[in-house]
Sequence to fold (826 residues):
Amino acid sequence: MNDYLLISFIMTVIGASTPILLAALGELVVEKSGVLNLGVEGMMLVGAVTGFAVTSITGMPLVGIIVAAITATLAALIFAYLTLTLTANQVATGLALTIFGIGLSSLLGEGFVGFTIDVMGPVFPAGLAEHPVLRVVFGHNVVVYFSIAMIGAVAWFLKKSRAGLILRAVGESDSSAHSIGYSVIGVRYAAVAFGGAMAGIGGSYYSLVLTPMWAEQLTAGRGWIALALVVFSAWRPWRLLLGAYFFGVVMTLELYTKAAGITLIAPELLAAMPYIATIAVLALISLRKSAGAQAPACLGQPFKPST
Amino acid sequence: MNTDVACRLELRSVTKAFPGVLANDQVSFKVGPGKIHALLGENGAGKSTLVKMIYGIMQPDAGEILLDGNVVHVPNPKAARAMGVGMVFQHFSLFEAMTVLENIALGLDENISHAELEKRIREVLTQYGLALEPHRIVSTLSVGERQRIEIVRALLLNPNLLIMDEPTSVLTPQEVAQLFETLRHLAANGCSILYISHKLHEIQALCDGASILRGGKIVGACDPKQESARSMAEMMIGGELMDVEKGPSRQLGGDRFVVNSLTVPGEGDFGVALDDINFSVREGEIFGIAGVAGNGQNELLLALSGEVKSEDSYTVQLDGKPLGKLGTTLRRYFGLCAVPEERNGHGAVPNFSLTDNAILTARNRKGMVNWGVINARKAETYADEIIQQFSVKTTGSTSTAGSLSGGNLQKFIMGREIMQTPEVLIVSQPTWGVDAGAAAAIHQELVNLAGRGSAIVVISQDLDELLAICDRMAVINEGKMSKTLNVAEATIDEIGLLMGGVHGDPNSTTEMTEAAHVA
Fold:
């Protein structure tokens, strides 16, 4: 592999990793607060379609991204209302949210199939962004830098800030947090909303940057990979970055082997690699003896305060 | 108003109702500054509800709460803390996977840096002579240390009133002695303490005054130092306390139940491994196993009942028959019945009727099933018999197990096993959360069962209980069993030391003096 190919390989990996990184980071915060939202895929699709629609109308991708974050947050709040206020089962509601997101995005996106938009350009000036080597660092659009900055921000928030401490406490023991006087439901609403916004931004990255167009089920199950990543990372933000880029490499390898005309492995098998890797990683993690020890103790449990 | 200023806390006709039950009915009492006041009552008498209202977790339906003579409204715990009210919960409100420091930070309302907080924690620890390492993860701490976190959390706020809800239920006698010293120190500095307990010896040792709560009402007040434990117990239950009669004629036969080199590896991160457990119980004997919770009691019960099978048949023997490799059903068939600590969900299925719950463990020994078909009438008769003989308060055998109060369900479960007349009965915490009257009845039934020749193993944290009914006992600590003691000769010091895992350390005996008075 020559230098040029290596550089463009890395660029592609970063592109492929960014949306799952964003969605997984949001879900990490949600799970840290003790809520399991399996609707990541659905929220990503809602973000993808609304972001694309708004961008194609306004011509401003940044506005599209913001709208994607807002609409996906609204979808997440439906989930929050059902599971937190009405204490519905989180697994069932999360699955329903995914199905809802698939259906809604198909419906909304019908009129936008075949539209094209301008792709967001790099942040830095052309001298840096198009430099043959330095573009690895400077050649990205704003969302890529945002995703990495968010990793740092979430890591700091969870570890150092008081609000982060309270969020972890709520996920660790909801009844204790309640008896000390914290609003368990309030904290969880906020976390679920944040998870929705991140999933929405992640979803819009597909329709605004990677593809860039709208097609039904555009995210192609990447929301599930994001969910697996959270477990893979043992609920640690920096490890999440590592995991997301690992999956990015697996997904990109498929493209490059195809392009290079390597037929040793069936392309269908290569296309399935990210999902096989997901299953393999999850199985390996479950085999570990301390499996589940790092998970927030109240993950997925409904909380009903006594009055 | 001026006369009331002498009161740190005053309640006036505080009333709180839940659907179907009046938890507190016109409760009034006063606590002076620097006084340690006991709130005494059975489980379900309404003590916890009452203090939750003082601490702002619940709101009273009617009545007034006064602090330092002023009527206050306490909307939430944060407001309570701002008014100088601290609380230490019965079930700790701690976060297992976090450090001591983080846990304490969560209980404070001001946002201060961890370095500054650590400094203040160390100051409080030195001032009260408490030992605690701020950077340890809570899940690695003993129960006594966990409670110290709660206490430090409350002390950092410089409270005027500290509420302690059943603080000693999980402590060793040594830890109780240390706690009392801290509380006296606090009271001497002017902090009032509202102390909730149903342990009468403790209240006598510690408290200046007591209000007695029964069925949500204040039924009396007393000076614990002037009363006997018995008279307070009778005020608490509102009747005469029954004594357990061991019966002089009880004959101990040969070994009925033998546990031989039982070793079970610990499961998961928090499981305790059982390490070479050996003991035997004779015909007609009650054998007690004491110990602080979490030292392998649950694992031992599972291994004895058959929920966890052994790899060697001879680790568990009944009348010489090796049962080690058998599961619960077959062990029951051979005459080994067991009652686990957790009633709802382990000892009984909450959503099943009492009859169905009776079938679950008694079907074979009581011949309720023929060719896989349940004989409903037989099962119902058996359930009715249990309800009658053990005076279980319920609307009938068709009501669900979950609808019974903890004490009543415990009576039902104990009855279900005892009336099968097992050759060997293993029980864990037989009277945990059961009121004194029912506890005495359960103790009497256990003694009677032993009188009929059964061998009984009682696993309990309640030393008074073990001393009252057992013939011999041992202590389990970190999955290891101590030497066996004859209850008639054992001293509380000796047992306490074994519970703490300190095997004959002379320095700790001085601390023991108070513990001996207490337990």
Observations:
- Chain B touches chain A at residues 56-58, 76-78, 81, 89, 92-98, 102, 105-107, 111, 268-269 (CB under 8 Å).
- Residues 15 and 352 of chain B are 34 Å apart (CA to CA).
- Chain B is about 35% helix and 25% strand.
